[in-house]
Amino acid sequence: MSRARARELQAAFAAQGDPTGWFEAFYAEAGGNAAHISWADLQPNPQLEAWLTREQADGAGKLALVTGCGLGDDAEALQARRYHVTAFDISPTAVRWCLERFPKTKVEYLAGDLLNPPKAWAGAFDLVVEIYTLQCLWGELREQAIERLASFVRSDGLLLIIARGRNEDDDPGEMPWPLTIEELSTFEEYGLKLMQFEDFFDGEAPPVRRFRALFQRVA
Prior knowledge:
eight-stranded mixed sheet; alpha/beta; 7 helices; single chain; globular
């Protein structure tokens, strides 16, 4: 299913006053065929894998949260690094798909809404991983999502953001809408400190500009 179809659904649901309902419709229309999910590579995000390898990440005894987990590959990558992982997606179909793909998983997969998360998640996680969800949200929804993401990080905990990037004066184009450095700086308003920031073009054809940013809640 093409990215164009995702844009059609997003516009249709937004016009009905349900700006995030399109995610479930998109996964449901795929009918269990991952080839119809334009962003599903059936392997961990390469920018996440590169970061985990570089940092020699060891999650033993640590709690991790994966937002918008899709088909589960990023969550499984973290679990393989010994994190105790909670992963959620707003699409119940996507969550069921994860459980079918990984029937013996130790990851806790849940259907959940980033904009209306469980209160128990506040300040609960050592590592929060957000990949490509923010870029599917616009305006007030993105602002709300940034606040929610920051709220999940415990003292000394980390938040890793991977997203398309653009300059402030660039045309944001169509969904997915790239983030700006100015938007990323908003996390600092919620008590997080920027520890790493990378601005690069990936290996796709044609290359896509990406941001990889790591924040920490400093005690």
